[in-house]
Amino acid sequence: NKMNELYQFIETKIRQSGYPGKIDGEDFYDDVSAEAEDQENGTYLFIVKKTDTLLYKGCMTVLDDQFDLHYVDIIDEEETYHVDFDN
Prior knowledge:
Blueprint: H1 2-16, H2 25-36, E1 42-49, E2 54-62, E3 67-76, E4 79-84
Antiparallel strand pairs: 1-2, 2-3, 3-4
């Protein structure tokens, strides 16, 4: 299944950043894709606040029927984990 492969890829990239917390690729994808919904085509910075101490800050390009996630910084308490999806 292509989506399961994508979720696995997301989880792998996030783990490679050193992020020690629990991560679910599907939940992460859903959070980020919600940021792309109803946006005009273009490149956007976004912030997803998961909890009082956990947030995602990132950059994506929105195209007609898809989005391209460039990077996300996972900020957990005082620690930042940079996840580069372009490499």
